[in-house]
Amino acid sequence: MFHCFTGIITLLFLLLAADLQAQVKSLEMGSMAGNMLDIYPNMPSQRLQRGAFFSLRWNGQSEYRELYKNVESGIQASVHDLGNQTVLGYGLGLQYQAAFNQSISGRFQSFQRINVGGIFVTQPYHYLTNPSNNVFGSNVSALLSVSAGMRYIFKQNALALQASYWHSSNAHTVLPNVGMNVPMLMLSFERNFFTDDVSLSNEKEPLRIDPRIGLILYGALGVNEAGGTVRPTNGNSYTKQLAGIGVSYRFKMIHRVSLSLEGYHDKAYELWNNAMEWTDPNNKLQSSALMLLLGHEFIFGHFGWIINGGINLYNPTLNRIINEAEQRNFSSISKRYVPGKFAVRYYINKSENHSGSAFVQLGVKSNLGQADFMEIGFGCLISKKQG
């Protein structure tokens, strides 16, 4: 729980710090409702999930905002009745928001919103007092949501209707961790403090960068609790030591692709190998893995949002777990081959201004979309600087 909480607070702090010069634009409040998807066996029964949300958004003068079509930033707070007060309890969410707006006519707009942050739940799993909750294994989990909708503008007000999808997970740091997946309908009222877009002067040169190749060096520490997603273990957390090297190509100002080779040694794999007597306890290589990852990064000033997917080149322990300890099906067989990673990266010095750009990264490594472990890492991007 501590690792998730630290990551959430750090992310929100960095994103807020990046927008200190922005101008508050609007306040929104509304309600939402939807049914949690029953995607695992023995999930607790629940009725309609209901909640309320409040959003404060701002914009400001930034070249990167223009490249992202004058994106608005915001903070969204939410209150959730999770549909089963006895087992699931209530939730309090806090997320950073990026909002993209498109004008359809004088009074109608379409929009898309991406939110990332965390949720605190009042009734997590407990082996004595609440053993039925396999959705939330910890009080604090990550909370992600995406939405698309329409709004009707009148004077300095607006009414909005949006469809959204909410996902919560603690990244396998505490078990069980089935996670929350809820399609929602959201209805809201918004008060705009001003209506004119804040943009840069037309006299200013647009922000651009020449295409360039870079070298990525990366090291990280990961953590998870050993076991399957559904069953609790009430055991220790296990660390992973990860290192990687890769090449990147920044082909536009806000886009970078990469190809990297990452390897890690996993203490949870050591536990499996020793407990099942699969290998010699001194054979560290059998408790390690190597993966090849192809990635894409959205760049916004000092920040990058990274989505990676690839193939396991070497992961003998995962193969044994799937073959000998899990029920074999298409999903379990496929996840042995397909690792992934979702991460937020903060560049201490911008790569367009420096030949060596140090960064800190918070991410979740997955197996075919199923959370494996959370990692925090440090690295350096070496590339030609601007000009």
Features:
387 residues, mainly beta, Porin, 2 domains, eight-stranded antiparallel β-barrel, 12% helix, disordered N terminus
Instruction: Report the portion of residues in β strands.
Output: over 45%
Give the structural class.
Answer: mainly beta
End-to-end gap: 45 Å
Q: What is the domain total for the residues?
A: 2
Please tally the helical runs, counting DSSP H or I stretches of 4 or more residues: 5
Count of extended strands: 16
Shape: flat
Series of secondary-structure elements, N-terminal to C-terminal: HEEHEEEEEEEEEHEEHHEEE
Which sheet architecture does the biggest sheet show? 8 strands, antiparallel, barrel
Q: Numbering strands along the chain, what is their spatial order in the largest sheet?
A: 1-2-3-4-5-6-7-8
Q: What top-tier CATH class of the largest domain fits best?
A: Mainly Beta
CATH names the topology of the largest domain as Porin
Which bin fits the share of residues in helices? 10-25%
Q: Flag low-confidence runs.
A: 1-6, 198-202
Radius of gyration: 22 Å
User: Which CATH architecture of the largest domain is right?
Assistant: Beta Barrel
> What is the mean pLDDT?
88
Quaternary: single chain
